[in-house]
Amino acid sequence: MMNIRVGHGYDVHRWGAENKPLMLGGVEVPHADGLLAHSDGDVVLHAISDAVLGALGLGDIGRHFPDTDDQFAGADSGELLTHIMQLAASRKFAVGNIDVTIVAQQPKMAPHIDAMRQRIADLLDVVSDAVNVKATTTEKLGFVGRNEGIACHAVVLMAGQS
């Protein structure tokens, strides 16, 4: 019998990390600034991590990789997600599909979406068509519209054997 679970993740980071690469979906996106964060600030992989952890009932990324722990300073979010996927596998769960929405006024995401999809698929060990990444602006409304930061939502379907 198949056990199906759904998880939702949300993450936000603000702009302001000069000379730090902008990482989104495990891909370096050219931009003048990076995002302020204890780790590499990849809001996409953080939202995915929270979605997977939520589906498994294992809390959130901050519980597993606290920003008060120096060993995670500058951490590669892909490595954190790999660890989370090992937790899922140990519980006999795998990703069925994932849907991601990046909320950003800038930069333009379209040129990077395919690379993000492939990198996320590799990290989740799924085919790329099981990963959907899309982006939207807020029409210059709110903190995203004022270019104060970037947000991301992720919804994941996890399938496991019961």
Automatic annotation (TrEMBL):
Sites where the protein binds a divalent metal cation? D11, H13, H46
Swiss-Prot/TrEMBL cofactor(s) = a divalent metal cation
**Catalytic activity annotated for this protein?**
4-CDP-2-C-methyl-D-erythritol 2-phosphate = 2-C-methyl-D-erythritol 2,4-cyclic diphosphate + CMP
Record's keyword annotation contains Transmembrane = no
* This protein's UniProt keywords: Isoprene biosynthesis, Lyase, Metal-binding
Cite the 2-C-methyl-D-erythritol 2,4-cyclodiphosphate synthase domain residue spans from the record.
4-158
Indicate the annotated site residue(s) for Transition state stabilizer: H38, T137
Q: Which family does it belong to?
A: Belongs to the IspF family.
Subunit structure of this entry? Homotrimer.
Which NCBIfam families has this protein been placed in? ispF
> Under which name does UniProt file this protein?
2-C-methyl-D-erythritol 2,4-cyclodiphosphate synthase
What organism is recorded for this protein?
Idiomarina baltica OS145
The gene it comes from is: ispF
